Amino acid sequence: MKEGKGEIELIKEGKRLDGRGFEELRPIKIEVGVLKRADGSCYFELGGNKVIAAVYGPREMHPRHAQDAKMAVVRYRYNMAPFSVDDRKRPGPDRRSVEISKVSREALDPVVMREYYPKTSIDVYVEVLQSDAGTRTAGINAASVALADAGIPMKDLVSSVAVGKIDGEVVLDLDAMEDNNGEADMPVAMVARTNTITLLQMDGRFEKEEFERGLKLAMSACHKIYELQRAALIDRYSESVGEGEE
Amino acid sequence: MYKVVVPGDFISEAVSRAGEGTYVEDGKVYAMRYGIVDERGEIKVIALSGKYVPTEGDVVIGRVAEISFPFWIVDIASPYEARLHMSEFTDARGEKIEFGSMNRYLDLDDLIMAKVMNVDVMMRIELALKEDFNLRSGGRLIEIPHTKVPRVIGRSGSMIKMLKDKCNCFIFIAKNGRIWVRGREDDMNLATEAILKIARESHTSGLTDRVADFLDSFKREKGRR
Hints:
The structure holds 2 protein chains of 2 kinds.
Chain A: E1 11-12, E2 15-16, E3 28-32, E4 40-46, E5 49-60, E6 73-80, H1 95-108, E7 120-130, H2 135-149, E8 158-166, E9 169-172, H3 176-181, E10 184-191, E11 196-200, E12 203-204, H4 208-236
Parallel strand pairs in A: 6-7
Antiparallel strand pairs in A: 1-2, 3-4, 4-5, 5-7, 8-9, 8-10, 10-11, 10-12
Helix pairs in contact in A: 1-2, 2-4
Chain B: E1 4-5, E2 10-12, E3 22-25, E4 28-31, E5 35-38, E6 44-47, E7 59-68, E8 71-75, E9 82-85, H1 87-93, E10 111-119, E11 125-135, E12 139-143, H2 149-153, H3 158-167, E13 170-173, E14 178-182, H4 185-200, H5 207-224
Parallel strand pairs in B: 9-11
Antiparallel strand pairs in B: 1-5, 2-4, 3-4, 5-6, 7-8, 7-10, 8-9, 10-11, 12-14, 13-14
Helix pairs in contact in B: 3-5, 4-5
C-alpha cells in the first residue's frame, strides 16, 4: 500500500525531480536481435530501467504432459538480477516476480497466434539488469519486440507503460523515487492498433476521475511506445546494403 | 525495394488475395509476421525468421536422434521430430530387421536425406528415404535459418548455380535450412563462407552480384599466391 503524501517533495515549480513534465516519458532505447543464440531478442531501456528479453521457440515442450495438443504454450519468466537494485536482491523467483511473470504472460497472450504451433512451447525470458520502477512494463515492451523478432505469428505488438499519482498530480511513467513516495502506481499494457487493454494493475488510490485521466494518458503513451517498437524492428532490415553486420 | 512489416501492420483491403503470413480482420488484411511484403499475386508476408515446420513433399536433411523400434526418430531442425519407419529398408531389400539391430542400417547421428511423406494434425511427421540418402563421407553440413533458403537458391536457381560453378562443389540445399556440401577441402571452405554470407545479408538487394564478386576476388587472391 502506498503511504500517501510522503516527506519528500516530488514536484517543484511544475516539474518533476528529474525535470520531466507530468505527461513526459523517460528516454527510450530499443535494440533488436542482441542475443545471437536466442530465436528472438530485444534490449529495452526506459530511463534507468535496462531489460533484456529473449525468446526461444516454438520448440518441443518439456515436460510433455504440459503440452497442449491444439496450440503452443507461452511461458514467461520475469527475473531481476541481484545487482539490478540498490540493495542486493536475493536471487531467484519470489512472490513478486512469479506474479509479474503471470500477468506479463497474460498481457502478451491475446496477440500470440498460438494455434500455429501445436504441442510446442514459446519461452520468454525477461532479465532486469537495472531497475528504476516500471520494469514490468519495460519487460512487456521488450518481450513483444523479441517475439516478433523470433518470427512468432502475432496479431499485433503489445506496448506498455505506467501512470501514477505524486503530490496529488496524475503523472506518466513514474521513476523509483516517485514510485516509492507517491500515492499511486498503475501499469497498463495494450494493443495500440485496437486500444485493447491486456494488463491493468493498480497500487495505491486514484479518484475515479484521476483513474480515467491516468488511463487516457497511459494509452496515448502506449501509442508512442508502439511507434518506437515498430521503428526498431523496421530499422533492423533497412540498414544500408552490403558491408557491416558482424 | 523491400517493404518490411511488423505484426499488426495494415497491408491492404483486398481480402480475397490474403495469403501466407497475413490475417484478415474487419475486411482488412494485416501482417501476422515480422517480414517482407510480397504483393505479386497473393498478398504474402515472407517471414525473416522463425522455425521450420515441414509440409508434405519437402526434402529435408535429418539427423537420427533416437532409435525406437520400428522407427528411427529423426531431428529435422524443427520443433517437431520426424519418424522414419523400418519398412523403408525392409521393403526395398526384402530383408527383415531384427529387434535391436536397426542401428546397423542407420545409427545415431547419421545424416540422411529424406522426403516428408505425411504431416498429420498432431504434427506427427513421416519420412521416406531418398535414393543416395546417406550423407556420410566427404561432405560437410552447413546450417542456416530455413527462411533464408530461397535466397541461397536465388531466382530460378541463379545463386545456387553460380555457387556450384564457382566453388566446384556438389551442393544440396534442403528445405529445413540444412545444406550438404561435398568437394575438395578448400572448395568447401569457400562455399561455406559464401553461403554464410548469403544468409547474413539475405535481406539486401544485389546480393547475387556481390557474392559473385566475393567468390571471384577470393579466387584471384588464390591464383596470385
